[in-house]
Design a protein that fits this description.
Strands 1-2-3-4 form a four-stranded antiparallel sheet. A four-stranded antiparallel sheet has the order 5-6-7-8, covered by helices on one side. The radius of gyration is 35 Å and the shape is elongated. The longest helix is centred in the first third of the chain and has 18 residues. Helix content is 31%, strand content 23%. The protein is built from ten helices and 17 strands. A hairpin with a 5-residue loop joins strand 6 and strand 7. The chain folds into four domains: 93 residues; 86 residues, Ubiquitin Conjugating Enzyme (Roll); 99 residues, Roll (Ubiquitin Conjugating Enzyme); 62 residues, Zinc/RING finger domain, C3HC4 (zinc finger) (Herpes Virus-1, 2-Layer Sandwich). The chain is α+β, with helices and mostly antiparallel strands and 368 residues long. The chain starts with a helix and ends in a 6-residue tail after the last strand. Bound molecules: zinc ion (2 copies). The site of one zinc ion has 8 residues, from loops.
Length: 368
């Protein structure tokens, strides 16, 4: 009898030589339930006492009389435990909610996985964790995972500072390690994109965004005083000619735009985006090594500041001797208030507040 008991319930062991006290776990449907069985000295099951963990008690609620009856009728401990397991199986089926309480292994596995994955943060409920993940180029990324222990079949909510949507595949058997390796694959697919932007960020003056994040695909690069180029890099095809928009006084921007159109065929996918931009525009970009950034952050001629909410002064007087920059909103409001200005649809025609030469501006909020 004893060997069969151990074979069927390897986690339930006798604590004394007389074999009147058993302690450990019984396993039902791959879940372990803690229990303790006390037998009288004559080891009669009729007078046995059972101590159950709270999950087991919860499952056996309403079945107490059946358990008692089985204790009276079972010939030995082996057959009683077999009967008890049958009752538990029925209980598990009728208590689907009970299944949603994560078993202790859930947490112990979580902890051992987290240790190897670079854990930065975990909340008190073990629901949300942040991992610090380095890609093969050594860039550090924060991967946030919101677990759903009550719904193990649903994918956790995963997020990170990425320029693309983070799609995760998930099964109830998936582990943190699976998530981690999927995240690494996504990071690897983006290393070329970040290489392109890191080179631009380190070798040129970036006017926008103020502090680029890993998900920003746009850069406005300073070319000269009040002249800049806005590039939009495709995260999936980072080395291709990006979408470009030149900003500044027309007499400077028009020749650059013409060069861009004429030299587009020179774009070389083996070369970096920054090199290609230099070759196609036939210019050198001012770099932190050669210029101060303050020479490009020229303030608006109306409000005397550089940043107006998110906007920077990108409307420039086209007179080559003036070239004064303005915020679109400032210039629009200024011109509209002047009786000498004229409006046609959403464009206002007026005079530059600095040099009195003709100047036009579109209604604020509309891209020029
Ligand atoms: Zn302004
Ligand atoms: Zn002017």
């Amino acid at each position: 009898m004893e060997s069969s008991l151990v074979k069927d319930n390897p986690l339930l062991l006798p604590l004394n030589k007389e074999k009147t006290v058993y302690n450990g776990f019984i396993t039902v449907q791959e879940r372990d339930f803690r229990m303790r069985i006390l037998l009288p000295p004559d080891r009669q099951l009729k007078r046995a006492r059972l101590h159950c963990c709270w999950q087991l008690k919860h499952l056996l609620r309403g079945y107490e009389h059946i358990v008692k009856q089985r204790l009276q009728q079972s010939a030995d401990l082996v057959s009683f435990i077999l009967e008890l397991k049958t009752v538990l199986e029925v209980g598990l089926k009728s208590h689907p909610k009970c299944c949603s309480i994560p078993p202790p292994q859930y947490y112990s596995q979580l902890i051992s996985e987290m240790e190897t994955l670079g854990l930065l943060f975990i909340d008190a409920e073990f629901r949300m964790l942040k991992l610090n993940v380095a890609d093969s180029s050594g860039r550090q990324h924060i991967f946030t995972i919101k677990l759903k222990p009550k719904h193990p079949a649903e994918a956790p909510d995963c997020s990170a500072d990425l320029p693309i949507h983070l799609a995760i595949t998930w099964t109830p058997q998936s582990t943190l390690d699976h998530l981690h390796s999927q995240f690494l694959l996504v990071l690897e697919s983006l290393t070329e994109f970040w290489d392109v932007l890191d080179e631009i960020d380190s070798k040129t003056w970036i006017l926008e965004p103020e502090k680029p994040s890993r998900s920003d695909t746009m850069r406005r690069i300073a070319i000269g005083n009040n002249i800049s180029i806005k590039v939009e890099v495709d995260p999936r095809h980072p080395k291709m000619l990006p979408e470009c928009c030149l900003l500044g006084p027309e007499h400077v921007v028009t020749p650059l735009r013409n060069k861009l159109n004429a030299n587009m065929h020179l774009w070389n996918l083996d070369s970096s985006v920054l090199h290609n931009l230099r070759d196609v525009l036939e210019i050198e970009f001012p770099s932190p090594a050669t210029h101060e950034k303050s020479s490009f952050n020229v303030e608006c001629g109306i409000c005397y500041s550089y940043r107006l909410e998110a906007a920077i002064p990108d409307q420039v007087c086209n007179d080559p001797r003036c070239g004064q920059p303005y915020h679109q909103a400032c210039l629009y409001e200024w011109l509209r208030a002047l009786p000498s200005s004229r409006q046609s649809f959403n464009i206002v025609f007026g005079e530059c507040p600095y040099c009195n030469k003709p100047v036009t501006v579109k209604m604020a909020g509309q891209k020029s």
